[in-house]
Design a protein that fits this description.
Layout: E1 26-29, H1 30-33, E2 34-38, E3 53-56, H2 60-63, E4 68-69, E5 74-76, E6 85-87, E7 90-94, E8 96-97, H3 100-103, E9 107-109, E10 112-116, E11 120-125, H4 129-137, H5 141-147, E12 149-150, E13 154-155, H6 158-161, E14 165-168, H7 171-209, E15 230-233, H8 234-237, E16 238-242, E17 251-252, E18 256-259, E19 264-265, E20 268-269, E21 275-277, E22 292-295, E23 307-309, E24 317-318, E25 323-328, H9 331-337, H10 341-351, H11 360-363, E26 367-370, H12 374-411
Helix pairs in contact: 4-7, 7-12, 9-12
Length: 416
């Protein structure tokens, strides 16, 4: 296909020197260089730990896989004749999802003989599959998102993908780009493993330094302290500070910062996706250093109870209908209580079968076993705060690598 805009050069902003003499990339319609098919079968109930066939379900593209699938996490015993198997080098895209941008994701299946489940669009071509996957997830992501159709559930069809314009360099350049981005993904994966190790270490410490259910002393304790811990409720440790109720017309580019559930990431506050409202909005309870942000209402139950220490740098409020703040004399200790199984059990019990919110009065009745001596509370808080700092640094490192990858993907493919 010829380039419709003669002023656009089909070359990336960032290119390996060895390929500069190769000239412009070729532009094609995906349907002219690839074959399309659909996955088949393999529902959630078909997944078994000791299954005969490794398989990929469409939902796993959202939770378990990125651009390249080298190891498959699921297996099934669905009869062979009822399955569709990979040949290797396929690119798969979900055909249904919650939002347009979510559904616009691609993964390359490196291995053959992998069962590809229903709701998967399968793209087979002679193009390097890893390269194509990065291309579709990068410069083509928004174009694919625009193709999705639906209201409550979005759908994406092969009949739409065939019309997608793509830019393709020669095979050696495809391989070099694929290898470079894959190598960076390996670095990110290694750093993620370090983060998971730190988080697992903290989880283990929480189980050791706080009493198990039904007990009044922890398994591990700082030597200078002794005696049983005491029962208490959150109402005796602090109080809830209601957030701000505002309407869409109050939202501004600048003003009072209001935190939402999306601002809580791995126990840390992420201000990138924040909302500002008019600074003259009345009824705004502003945060103090070390207040704890808590999600008390959300459409997703897994987000309810999510919490994080609010940054000291600025006073802010919370989205009143969904978020609240907990203020205590020893907030850093209470924050660690909110990471324990005792807290998680009470949140789950509070939600029950259908309710997607926590009642503030119920929340203040949550029961915990805590040290009688404030000095022991502070010692525990300081121990975990140091570990939380390491986790935060590691999380920031991973985020920086992801931003670097995003920048590379924007520069290594032509912008058309």
């Amino acid at each position: 296909m010829s380039n419709e805009n003669e002023n656009i050069k089909l070359v990336p902003e960032l290119r390996f020197l060895e390929f500069e003499k190769d000239g412009e990339w070729n532009q094609s319609v995906l349907g002219s260089v690839a074959e399309f098919s659909k996955g088949k079968g393999v529902s959630k109930k078909d997944i078994v730990p000791d299954g005969k066939f490794p398989c990929i379900r469409y939902g796993e593209l959202y939770t378990d896989y990125d651009e390249v699938i080298s190891e498959v996490v699921s297996k099934t015993n669905v009869p062979k004749e009822e399955l569709i198997f990979s040949k290797g080098n396929e690119v798969i895209i979900p055909s249904s999802g919650e939002t347009r941008i979510d559904i616009a994701r691609a993964s390359c299946v490196l291995q053959e003989r992998i069962a590809l489940g229903g709701d998967l669009n399968i793209i087979q071509s002679k193009i390097n599959g890893v390269f194509l996957s990065y291309l579709l997830n990068g410069s083509k992501k928004r174009e694919i998102a625009k193709m999705a159709q639906g209201v409550s559930v979005m759908h994406l069809y092969n009949s739409q993908l065939v019309n997608l314009n793509i830019e393709i360099p020669k095979p050696r350049e495809q391989q070099k780009i694929a290898a470079t981005l894959t190598s960076l993904d390996h670095v990110i994966a290694a750093e993620n493993e370090k983060l998971e190790a730190l988080q697992a270490h903290k989880k283990g410490l929480l189980q050791q330094l706080f009493p198990a259910k039904g007990e009044k002393v922890p398994k591990v304790r700082f030597g200078e302290f002794s005696g049983e811990w005491e029962e208490t409720t959150l109402s005796k440790l602090g109080d809830l500070i209601n957030g701000l109720t505002y309407s869409p017309k109050d939202v501004r580019e600048k003003g009072l910062l209001v935190l939402r559930s999306s601002n809580v990431q791995n126990g840390q506050i992420d201000l990138k996706d924040c909302v500002f409202v008019r600074p003259d909005t009345k009824g705004a309870n502003l945060s103090l250093p070390d207040d704890i942000l808590i999600c008390v209402r959300n459409g997703s139950k897994r987000l309810i109870g999510k919490n994080a220490i609010i940054p000291k740098e600025m006073p802010l409020s919370t989205h009143g209908a969904f978020m609240t703040m907990f203020r205590a004399k020893l907030s850093k200790f209470v924050f660690q209580l909110f990471q324990t199984e005792a807290y998680n059990r009470q949140v789950k019990a509070d939600l029950g079968a259908t309710i997607n919110s926590i009642n503030g009065k119920n929340f203040l009745k949550y029961e915990f076993i805590v040290p009688k001596d404030p000095k022991e509370q502070l010692r525990i808080a300081d121990c975990f705060s140091s570990l939380d700092d390491l986790i935060a640094v590691q999380s920031e490192k991973i985020q920086s690598l992801k931003e670097h990858k995003k920048g590379l993907m924007q520069q290594m493919f032509p912008i058309v």
